[in-house]
Design goal:
The complex is a heterodimer of chains A (about 220) and B (about 200). Chain A is mainly beta and about 220 residues long. Chain A has one domain: outer membrane lipoprotein receptor (LolB), chain A (Clam). In chain A, strands 1, 2, 3, 4, 5, 6, 7, 8, 9, 10, 11, 12 and 13 form a 13-stranded antiparallel beta sheet that branches. Chain B is α+β, with helices and mostly antiparallel strands and about 200 residues long. Chain B has a single domain, classed as Lipoprotein localisation LolA/LolB/LppX (outer membrane lipoprotein receptor (LolB), chain A), CATH 2.50.20.10. Chain B contains 2 helices and 11 strands. Chain B has an 11-stranded antiparallel beta sheet. In chain B, β1 and β2 form a beta hairpin. Classes of the chains: A mainly beta (about 220), B alpha+beta (about 200).
Chain lengths: ~220, ~200
């Protein structure tokens, strides 16, 4: 039994080997650290241009519409060509996922799940309490969560005000790195998502419109 | 009596088709004078997820028989250049225009060959669509997919044509009950010279 415990402990240690080291904050207790939070606090609709890059080369640009309800954690999204043709449309919430439209290549197996996971990572706050709070070697404040479905998620804030969201596998491999704009008023004005998967790719998202979806809908921002 | 009734029925069935064919033939003759078109356009995309339509603006150029430049200026700058040979799609990235490498341009060629046909009055030449024509203050053409190829993609396309000069005034592309795209052409100029570079260079 003792041997098994040692083995489990060794496995857990090994599994976190690639995660960046979180250092205790200087001069203040860990519990006093406020986790950086760029995440949406109200139901919001965002329209972005999405530039798709592989091997440092832009392949195409699309328009993405996302409607997010952080309370029910429901995501509705649509991808359109620059010409306005709807290529993909889906909703994911507590009831599950419904894909109402998916033309090739967006009809590929697991595309919808991966896309919803990416949207959730970017816009919705992680659930539960952080497993660790502290600072990175460079001084950036960081909070780390262990996700219930496995893997790790980190949110950090640099001294320039730029927030980053990272997702790691259970074994500590970096899967997604999200860098948000250094704009405290609207960190979602530009978003860079770098994905390390079977195919590495990057998405550069530039905000066209954002709108709070309440009782009185109205455009909050409209960029030229 | 029975025979006369049958003939009448046959005439009723055949006559509308004959009229339709004549109307489309007339439309084609009326549009024959169009050698070039340049216009601004406003595109309104409506769908359930949007509270108000997403508006795009751009410029359109056409030269007979099949050269098109379809350029969006905002919110996302992109240019499609389509001609008898090939269709290329360019998108703004990092301050310059780069060619779309996804193969989407070839899919667009099918669309823009069709659009080039509309500009020269050819609305019923594509067997993928069933075309109907209605005359009123403007001429309205409705195209409905005739096969299953476009099932779930396009429900219908409505095109309005000016009765004066036979230029296309608007296109309404209905995807389904919840999504449609309407394109209105403005400042339409017909038969004014367009420099060939418009259909070659992206700039």
């Amino acid at each position: 039994m003792k041997g098994l415990l040692v083995l489990i402990a060794a496995c857990l240690l090994a599994s976190c080997a690639a995660l960046p080291q979180v250092l205790p904050p200087a001069g203040s207790a860990e519990k006093n650290i406020r986790c950086p939070s760029p995440f949406l606090a109200e139901k919001t609709r965002l329209i972005h241009t999405i530039e798709v890059r592989t091997s440092d080369e832009t392949k195409t640009v699309m328009i993405g519409v996302t409607l997010m309800d952080p309370f029910s954690r429901t995501i509705t999204c649509a991808l359109m060509s620059a010409e306005g043709m709807t290529l993909f449309e889906a909703v994911r919430g507590p009831e599950g996922m419904v894909v109402s439209r998916a033309f090739p290549p967006f009809d590929a197996a697991d595309f919808a799940v991966h896309m919803m996971d990416d949207i959730e990572l970017i816009f919705l706050a992680p659930q539960g309490l952080p497993a660790k709070k502290g600072v990175l070697a460079g001084g950036d404040q960081i909070c780390r969560w262990h996700k219930t479905q496995g893997g790790w998620m980190e949110v950090s804030a640099g001294r320039d005000g730029r927030m980053k969201v990272h997702r790691y596998s259970e074994g500590g491999d970096l899967k997604r790195a999200v860098t948000l704009a250094a704009d405290a008023a609207n960190p979602y004005s530009t978003i860079l998502l770098q994905a390390s998967d079977l195919v590495n790719y990057a998405l550069v998202m530039t905000l066209i419109q954002s709108e709070s979806v309440g009782d009185k809908p109205g455009l909050k921002e409209s960029l030229p | 009596m029975k025979k006369t009734g049958l003939i009448l029925l046959l005439l009723l069935l055949v006559l509308p088709a004959a009229v339709r064919a004549d109307d489309f033939e007339q439309l084609r003759k009326d549009s024959a004078h169009i050698a070039t078109i340049s216009a601004d356009f406003v595109q309104k995309k409506s769908m359930k997820i949007l509270s108000i339509p997403l508006i795009s603006e751009g410029k359109f150029f056409y030269a007979a028989p099949a050269s098109i430049r379809w350029e969006y200026q905002k919110p996302l700058r992109s240019v499609i250049i389509s001609g008898p040979g090939a269709t290329r799609r360019y998108i703004a990235s990092g301050g310059k225009m780069i060619e779309d490498k996804t193969g989407g341009a070839q899919a667009m060629k099918i669309v823009f060959d069709e659009v080039a046909g509309w500009m020269s009055g050819k609305f019923n030449s594509n067997s993928a669509f069933t075309a109907t024509l209605k005359e009123g203050p403007v001429t309205q053409i409705t195209l409905k997919p005739s096969g299953k190829n476009m099932a779930g993609m396009i429900e219908k396309i409505e095109i309005t044509i000016s009765r004066k000069d036979r230029s296309v005034q608007s296109v309404r592309l209905v995807e389904n009950a919840n999504a449609e795209t309407r394109i209105d052409f403005q400042h339409v100029v017909i038969n004014q010279g367009i420099h060939p570079s418009v259909f070659q260079d992206v700039q």
